[in-house]
Amino acid sequence: MITLADKKMHGEDGSVIAYYDNEHIGKTAGPTVILLHGYCGSSAYWERVLPTIKDAGRVIIPDLRGHGASSAPESDTYAMEDFADDVIRLMDHLYVHQAYLIGHSLGGYITLAAAERHAERLCGFGLVHSTAYADSEEAKAGRDRAAASIEEAGVDAFVEGLVPKLFAPEHLESMPEQVERVKAIGRGTSPRGAAASARGMKARPDRNAVLEGTQLPVLLLAGGRDGLIASERTFSVTRSNVKHALLEQSGHLGMIETPEEEAAELLAFVQR
Question: pTM for the full model?
Fold first, then answer.
């Protein structure tokens, strides 16, 4: 498997959350930033923005449950609230009282759940190529098909079909090495974890009320070439504490397709 995570938190229930933490190299001045990757990804999704964002302060990047080097609990559904509670447990384990929480895609859904349940633990949050809207009925049916496909044929075949949809069409030809790397990262996802995560995404509620009600600073970042989540679904709320950022040339993976631009937006947000 491909992951940045080189440390592990062991739970009393036998669960394992793997994570990267730059504290050991002295990057503790400034805010703490926690980056959450997307579906069938791992902490390695953030490796191209890390050289810039690590200068913000302490940066923690976990592998979500069922992904990367983290364990896959025996459950049919991983609710967004379950993932959010994992994040809080990791913060407690690392003695982090508050942090900026920034989530990509699935990570954004988790970020919203954390902002709803644990707002006092956040000093700001961001959705990256994500949305506060719930799935449409068509999308819910797609989650069911994804879970069934993974359980019947495994993760590898599913990832082969998924990854080309994540990149802007022109990047499939111009970034072949990155396309293959994202596929390799995806193949490291637990089949049980991938299926349970799909069901959890299907079940998540609309959380635009979280964006409308929070007093925390919020970053909403979208890709102009994103074929999965259109920018208008990311930019669902306009308020004085909510910043919109559009990466014109990015698909669904700005941290990989346009890492310098995405890193600059993240850095500006957490150093505002």
Answer: 0.97
Assess contact for 122 and 216: CB atoms under 8 A. Answer: yes
Residue 75 has a pLDDT of 95
Please tell me the distance from the alpha carbon of residue 194 to that of residue 158, in angstroms, as a whole number: 10
Sign of CA pseudo-dihedral 71, 103, 24, 52: positive
Residues of the chain under the 70 pLDDT cut: 24-29
Distance separating the N- and C-terminal Cα atoms of the chain: 35
DSSP state of 133: S
| Residue linked to tokens 């049919």 | 76
Average pLDDT score, the chain: 96
CA distance 16 to 71: 5
- What pLDDT score was predicted for residue 24? 61
How does DSSP assign 173-241, residue by residue? Answer: HH-HHHHHHHHHHHHTS-HHHHHHHHHHHHHPPP-HHHHHH--S-EEEEEETT-SSS-HHHH-----TT
The 3-state DSSP class for residue 145 equals: helix
